[in-house]
Structures are given as C-alpha cells and as structure tokens.
Amino acid sequence: MSIPGKVLIVDDEAHIRKYTGLLLRSLGVPLILEATNGQEGFEVYQREQPDLVLMDVNMPVLDGVETLKLINAYDPEAVVVMLTSLATRQIIDDAASHGATYYLRKDTPRDEILAQLKQIFADTFESDDDAAVAPDATP
Amino acid sequence: MPFSDATHFTPFNPAGAKVLVVDDDRVNLRILRGILQNAGYIIAEADSGEDALVQCVEFQPELVLLDVVLPGIDGFTTCRELLKRHGKGAPPVIFITAKNAADDIVEGLDAGGVDYVPKPFRQNEVLARIRTHLQIRRLLAAQHALVEQLSRANEAKNKFLGMAAHDLRNPLASIRGLAEFMREGVVGELTPDQLDLVNTMHQASQSMLELVNDLLDLATIESGELKLARAPAALAELIEKSVSLSNMEATKKETRVVFNAASVAVTFPLDAAKMRQVLDNLLSNAVKYSPPGSTVTVELRGDRDQCEFSVKDQGPGIPDSERDKLFKDFGRLSAKPTGGEKSTGLGLAICRKIVEAHGGTIVAENLAGRGCEFRVTLPFPDSP
User: Fold this and answer.
1) What are the DSSP calls for B297-365, one per residue?
2) Fewer CB near the terminus (10 Å): N or C of chain B?
C-alpha cells in the first residue's frame, strides 16, 4: 500500500481535524499533524516537511489559498489537497492554478471520501512507496 | 391587516397631485384650472401637443387632461408619443374633447388613453374620473414598490438560508462520519445500548443533512443560481441507477420497484445529476408512501420531440383538497410514510423547479382504483 508517512491537516474547525484524522488513521497513516489556521499550517510545514497537506479554504489569520501559495513557493514539490465545502468552480480553479493537486468535499459520505483519499495516495506516493518498500523486500 | 385597511378604508386624498391640462382654447383652460385648483390640484397648462410633451418632462405630471383637436399634432398622436417616450412611467391620459363620436372614443382609448370625457363636461364627472385614475396610478406604484420590497426580502431570505444551510453541512457530516467510526468499534467495542445510541446519532445526523441539503438546493434554485449542465444522457441508465438505489430501501418494506424501459433507447440532453435528483425523489416518495408488499412501476417513453417518464405507486393517492400543496415548499400532505420514514416537504418543490428549468412539466394524477402517478415530460430543447 502506498501510504504517506506524515500528513498535515490545516483546518480551523476541531471536528474536521478530528474526523479527517480518523479517516487518515483508518487508512494507516502513521503520523498526523494538525494546524488551526494557514499561518500555523505554514510554520508546521516548514518545520515538519509532511508528505501531504489537507488544507481548508476559509480560515482565520491566513486562508487556504494564500497558505497554498506560501507552501508552494517554499516547496514546489508539496502535495496539497484542498478541503472544500460546497466548492465553487472559481475556488477550485484558483487553488489548482497555485499548485493544489486535488480537492475533497468535506460533506462527502465516508466510504466515498476514503476511496478518494486512497486514490490520491495511489496517484501520489506510488513511486516513493516502491522505493521505501524495495529495501525491505530485498533479503 | 394594516395593508388592506390602508387600501380599502382610507379615503383617497388627491390634493397636491400634479395635473397637466392641455387645450388650445383659453376659456376652457381657465375653467378647468379653476375647478382643479379648487379641488387642491397643482396645475400646469399646455396649448399644443408639442408643448404638452415638453411639459411632461419639465412638470412631471401625475395625470394629463388632453384635448384632441389641437394645432400641430393632435391629442391622439400626442398620447401615443407620450407613451412611446415614457413607457410604463407615462402619466395616465384622459381625453377631454367635443370630438366624441363613438369612433373617436375608440381611437382615443386605442391610442393609450385611460378615459374619455366628452365636452361639454360636468364638473363632478371630471373630478371623479381624475380622482379614480390618480388612485389607480398610486396603487400601481405602491404595488410595484411592495413587489420590489418583497422580492428583495425573499432574496435576503434565500441568501440567509443558503449561508445557514452551508454552515450546517460540515459539522453534520463530521457527526455522521464520527458516529460511523464509533459504531464500527474503531475507538473500542460498544455495548448494545451504546451501539443503539450511536446508531440514533447517526440516523439523526443523516436525516438532518438531507434536510439541510434540500434547503440549500431550494435556496440555490430560488435565487436563480440553478445552472443546468446539459449533456446527452441515456435516460434508461439514469433510471436504472435510481431504481437500484431505491430498491435497497424498498426491500426493507417488501416493496418492489420495477422499471419498464422504452422499446427504443432514449438519449436526451439534460443535466444528469439534477434529473437523477428528481428520479431519486419521486422513487423514494413512491416507496415511502406505498403499503408494504406493493409494487412501484417506472415507465419511460420517448420520441423525437419529447420524453416522458412516470412513477406509479399503490399508495393512498393524493386527496383533491391537498393537490395544490403538492409541489410547493414545505407542502407536506396528510399521508404518512408507511415505514416511519422522514419527509422534509421540500422534495417535490425541488423536483418541480428542476423539471421546469429543463422546460418540462411534472404532474401528479390519482390512478383509478388505488395509487397515483407522477409524470415528468421533457421537451427536446430545440423543439417548439
């Protein structure tokens, strides 16, 4: 399985961080970090270098798209998935043009959102995963 | 009701209203001026049609008393020109003239005049007619303002509804998801009692989420933000998906949903997601109100110009007295779901709006014997 080792959730709402954290844990993500706004999210990103960021759009202090720009400028390889509500096309396009790789709707039923996350993991971490698994596989 | 009090019981006081009197005869002008000023009107005068058109801009009268035989353009031409220039904002025109054969009166009314007073006139008649038309004009203006105000209030309501529903969705989705984790024992095994409570939380958040989604749909649709993304879709496939979903609920009540597809494939340009919502709604209603063990039948027909699908159930049908509530917001009827299901009363209102956005119609008819049929007819976008 291609699972990111370290995922950062940036969302100002505790229930979203908790629920998303459970989603990630149930998929086997070993380390989950949390930040409650964009500013804090960027600081954690620089310090911890997570493999994947799940980022809310509307947040106090620094919103998701602005934070995305900072992270992307700091690390063009960053994998950022936007967590949206009823996403308007404009926000999605805006985020995509600043390097967001995917977006997930927060109110998606759990089985669907789990499938979407798995797909994102598969698309994004396959090669890394193979590299990580390879040494173990070699006797 | 204060509104009806104001319109029906407060005597209309025309004093201070501005009236333009148009006549080329000085004596007539003087007489009319005297009568009208005595009644409290503010008067301006014009002695030709051309002058009247200028005065209408400068003086802004609320009513024009217009002679027909004038030097230059006549009264009828003046009236037509006035309406052309000012449209709906034009003041009402009452012709006052000795030219009063039946044909003249008809021509004057055709030219857009609201009334016709023959000369020689009776003072009380002129005053009564002026008063009546000023009152109509003011009522129309008041009504227009009221409609504007109501439509702004409705817009604000929709915006508020949309925002509230929007903000409620995510927490509800979290509660639902967290309850799912709990009942699976992800955070420890639950006792049967605990499991029961968690299941109740799950169901409650799920039905609230559905209500919120319905409210949001309605707010979106009402605020005119319903945008259709039409693409050719195979209706039979759409219906099959919806049927298999509703069969999951139906089997709990030993009800069956059967689909008789059209003999020819019906491909139709429509917004598949939105039409699926209509189908899901009609089918879930049919299952909801059907007695256990009954059959719900879905049919699809189509030709070059239109397609039609219908959902027939064997439920109690729709009482005639409740017919008009059926497709309205929160129009819950007296019939109760047969398996304790929930209803928001918004489903059919949303269905109607989606179908109408497609240019189609949705009707409900009681079937002979028992049950009712909901029929959706969609015209091909290009057909007349």
Assistant:
1) EEEEEE-SSEEEEEEE--S----GGGGGGTTSTT---S---TTS----S-HHHHHHHHHHHTT-EEEEE
2) C
The CATH classification of domain B231-379, taken from the options 1.10.10.10, 3.30.310.10, 3.20.20.140, 3.30.565.10: 3.30.565.10
- Give CA–CA dist B71/B50, Å, rounded: 9
Which residues in chain B are closer than 8 Å to A110, comparing Cβ atoms? 176-177, 180
The DSSP secondary-structure symbol of B87 reads G
Residue B173 contacts A, CB cutoff 8 Å: yes
Closest to A69 measured CA to CA, from A36, A93, A98, A48 = A98
β-bridge pairing A80-84 and A100-105 = parallel
Strand B115-118 relative to strand B93-97, pairing: parallel
Chain A 17-46, residues with CB within 8 Å of chain B CB atoms: 18-19, 22-23, 26
A75 touches chain B (CB under 8 A): no
Fold of B2-121: Rossmann fold (3.40.50)
Between chains, do B186 and A107 touch, taking CB under 8 Å as contact?
no
Mutate to test the interface with B, among A107, A112, A113 (most CBs of B within 10 A): A107
Give me the average pLDDT of each 10-residue run along chain B (384 residues). Answer: 50 86 93 94 95 94 94 94 92 90 88 92 93 92 92 83 80 92 90 92 88 79 74 86 84 85 76 88 87 88 83 85 75 67 74 88 85 89 60
Domains and CATH numbers, chain A: 6-125 (3.40.50.2300)
Using a CB-CB cut-off of 8 Å, the residues of chain A touching B170 are 13, 15-16, 85, 106-107
ipTM, interface predicted TM-score of the complex: 0.75
